[in-house]
Amino acid sequence: MYPPPVLSSLRIIACLALLLLAACGRQAGTPESATRQTKGVIGLSVLTLTNPFFKEIADKMTEEAAKHGYTVSVVSGEFDVARQQNQVKDFIVQKVAAIVLTPCDSKAIGPAIQEASTAGIPVFTADIACLAPGAKIVSHIATDNYGGGKEAARAMIEALGDQGGKIAILHHKLVESCILRVNGFHEVIDKVPNIKIVAELPGGGVKDQGYKAAEDLLQAHPDLAGIFAINDPSALGARAAVEKAGKANQVKLIAFDGQPEGKQAIKEGKIYADPIQFPDRIGVETVRIIAKHFSGETVPPQLLIPTALYRKADADKDPTLK
What's the rounded Cα separation, in Å, for the pair 235 and 207? Predict the structure, then answer.
């Protein structure tokens, strides 16, 4: 048995050792709160981060996830389904709590989703659905794209007036949301006798392809009266081609999304109207559904958020625009 002075010294040394171990448990200068464990990581792979729409989904998911005790790891497929498949594999290796995808290819992403499901990781889709048979999706959270396509058709009818005319569609058939938009557009337009769809070309959902497709359309159909583009970037590319051809007053453009650049173009009269989406709501609702799923609640297989038609009158009152 140690004498009292020696015993006291040993106790002091033991306390100092414990404090040192606690300090080593964190990196120097790292707040203690940063070392606390979250409920898990949500892996998010979006179609592209060059489009503000998907960046807003990612940002809002990250904000909402923090409220529920999760962190979000954001990556981008950049239109490359092989890259996105590898990102899913990485998420599986990292043992994330859940995976959220906005697929680069609605069918080709299927095997990667099946692989995640086999690993016991629930998969959710946001904005763009998976169309691959057998791929297990817990819930799909998106815009009502079919309804939005119908709104786009009504805007085209309004823009062309009684004269009607020939119109074309700039499509992106690899993505389920775009397929729904065009299907909804067809449902309304195909019933209008004085409007005729004369062409449907791939616009890729990006400006440069939209520009090239519109150039080809105007050469083949110099009397074209309107173009429906499946998103703002392809519509803005088409607008540049229309202006170059000197037909800015002839060709009416209907887009989709309601991105800041698209809304500004509507205010300036370059695009007639957009059915606008709400990516902030998609991001927030996706996280809420994930949290409900993990708490044992039954979640809907699909949650659709309606669009709203946005015209110049709306843009003129929009405080976010110049």
Answer: 7
What is 265-308 written as a DSSP string?
Answer: HHHTTSS-BEEEP-HHHHHHHHHHHHHHHHTT----SEEEE--E
d(CA 20, CA 32): 14
pLDDT of res. 171: 97
Q: Which domain holds residue 47?
A: 39-143+278-306
Residue 302 inside a domain? The answer is: yes
251 falls within a domain: yes
Do 139 and 157 lie in a common domain?
Answer: no
Q: Does residue 25 fall inside a structural domain?
A: no
The CB-based long-range contact list for 189-196 (8 Å cut-off, 24+ gap) reads: 189/153, 189/156, 189/157, 192/157, 192/164, 193/164, 194/162, 194/163, 194/164, 194/165, 195/156, 195/157, 195/160, 195/164, 195/165, 195/167, 195/226, 196/164, 196/165, 196/166, 196/167
CATH number, domain with residue 235: 3.40.50.2300
* Token pair of 245 as six digits: 């051809």
Q: How far apart are CA 195 and CA 85, in angstroms?
A: 41
Collapsed DSSP state (helix, strand, coil) of residue 91: helix
Spatial contact of 62 and 38, defined as CB atoms under 8 Å apart = no
Q: Where are the beta strands (DSSP E) in 98-151?
A: 98-101, 123-126, 139-143
Residue 290 lies in a domain: yes
Whether the predicted model's global pTM rises above the 0.90 cut: no
Domain count, the chain: 2
pLDDT digits (tens, 9 = 90+) for 8-56: 554 544 444 444 444 444 333 333 333 346 799 999 999 999 988 999 9
> What percentage of residues in the chain have a pLDDT greater than 90?
85
